[in-house]
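Question (not urgent): is this output format expected?
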Amino acid sequence: MSRPRVLFMGRNRYTLPLPGWLAKKWDAVERQIDYRVLASAGEGTERFEDERFRLIAPLRLRALDGIAFYGRLPVRARKEIRTFRPHTIVASDPYIAAAALLARGLVGGPKPRVILEVHGDWRTFTRLYGSPARRLLNPIADLVGKVALRRSDAVRAVSPYTGGLVEGVRGIPVTAAFPTYTDLLVFSSRPPALLPEEPVACFVGMLEYYKNIDGLVAAWRKVAERIPEAKLIVVGQGARRELVEELVAELPGRVEWYEELPPEGVAEAIDRATVFLLPSRSEGLPRVLMEAFARGRGAVGGRAGGIPELIEHGRTGLLVDPEDVDGLADAIVSVLSDRELAERLGREAHALYESVHTTPAEYAARMRALVDASLRDTGAVPGERPRVLIVGRRTYAFPLQGPTADALKALRETVDYCVLGRTARDAKPVKTALGPGSFHLVRRWPGSLDTLLFHLTLPFRVARLVRRFRPGVVIAESPHLGFLVLLALAFRRRNRPSLVIETHADWRSAVRHQGSRARRLVAPLADWAARYALRRADGIRALSRFTAELAEREAGVPPLESFPAYIDLSIFTARPPAPLPATPTALFVGMLEAYKNVDGLARAWASVAAELPEARLVIVGKGALIDVVERLLDDYPGRVEYHSELPPEEVARALDESTCLVLPSRSEGLGRVLIESFARGRGVVASRVGGIPDVVRHGEEGLLVDPADTEELARALVRVLSDRELAERLGDAARRRYREWDSSPDEYAAHVRSLVDRTLAGAAR
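Got this back:
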């Protein structure tokens, strides 16, 4: 694709032929992009169409012009999509994007991507602009804006401020952030003028509520009382012009008002000023501030929107609360009465301008990169990062923190992922904008209803995400989820993604040893579904040798990749292991469920406690078998300690205060707590099941027992707790071996990328 076709849509008012500064911008864009512009015609325009521009004529009745423009826009956009056939639409605000999305939905065949630009806080459109009657539209406008932001395929912000607004709605960062090209040649073609001898302030902007023109007028009355010789220049027009008219009449000769000036006139007005004023209540990345900075003038501005990104308080200007009239007046007076301060602010402002100004070629190149990034996600442009939908029952809490955040950040650099999972308890569902790095988290329901509803609705959720996200690969985090993904893909004939199934543990235990006993009734059906999914998957990933062998027996083919999940061991390796405690102590960390054999541990502890009266047992976890732990607490007061939950640093401390870890599971994949125990130099007493023998070698890092033999478990615990030399030897061997599982987020992400690449390569053959 030499040059992508792009339809630019906006409320901007153009006149044909274009003025010189705009022609330079669009000439640069044309060298990068085959474009067409659909926008509004300016006043007095006689031509409404040429090779590149399609302009919508304004209504003579100005009050209805905006409504008419947005009403006609979807129809006009649909026409341009059908005739120009753009690869991408660039919409200048969320409401324009809503029209573009509607127009796209009305055409058949290939549909263009929609890139939404955010130049400011779109929510002020109906709150701070024009007639107060527009506020009646707030709920509808907010809904339209939110839908457009979430449904757009990419978003460009013009500043970190607008990027933060977008991320707050979409839940994912913007695709790109760069300022709009601003032609400042008129303002930068000559060196800044010296400050005038008399104190003068200049305001340039719309005379609207959002510009805080009422606050400025009130503040200037106070300034005029304190500095009688001060002068104010106002350039602009708008709904609040009567405020300026009153000020001109009240202070004749000391307030100048120009409804409109050409760029040269604005530059001259700024040169006549000591300081520039912009006390706005809402602002994106104001071009007029850059114009003032180019002319070497500092500014007094409102601490709102994107203004603080240009005005650094005390360096390039002074910031005030837009609603603080006295504070605004004080700031203006301080600059007008201190020439040295005004000169210093002006020098710093000019230096900032020189460091951030852009050229038409730079703007066009950034726009081309943004368009290419959008198209790359659809496969229209060959891309480096495949799209992956990750489906699991894992719980996520926002904002993401710790190992989960680290792993996903690294993963984002290798694949463009979308995660389908669950929210934390009592948290609201999370549906971020559908795109790379997005999340769709399902709400949690009370009791067993949670699991049932999650599985019943999963195929529909997956089908919707596959249709909209268009992944190349779907990764299901268990064979049972893999079966539900297959149901979602059953009727998909075109662009069907490949399926990878992960085996984290013995999936058969999920319906036999976890949750309610009633789940065992569906065990035969669950086993068949898992076997069916494994045999029809395009790839399998195992976490350990045990799960690899188990998957190969069912699927008939070995897994494509075998690697553990990323484990952040920094908390467990930050300091050397502590000496063994004086009191013999066993530590259990895990779910209080049947598959963890908590009941077997309780029976074994009766024998341990009888033989070693000084021994202690510490239990960390929660689950259905809490009553077993409560009985232990009653039977051995002061010798059994229980914590329902501990943060990682407290788990590390509990390991330091223990002689060994005990993990008597009936089923286990690759026990993370084993590796954490190794990192703290503690040996283990564990069951000879699942993936545990892949980590623990009998007699080396721990003692392995039959989970069904309670007496063998008790004897092993007594051996380790009563023989300090043995416990130290096991702990030393464990400490030497933990590094086999100590990996970085980048290494984990590289494994996932290899898995995805091998799956896609197999599908292509």
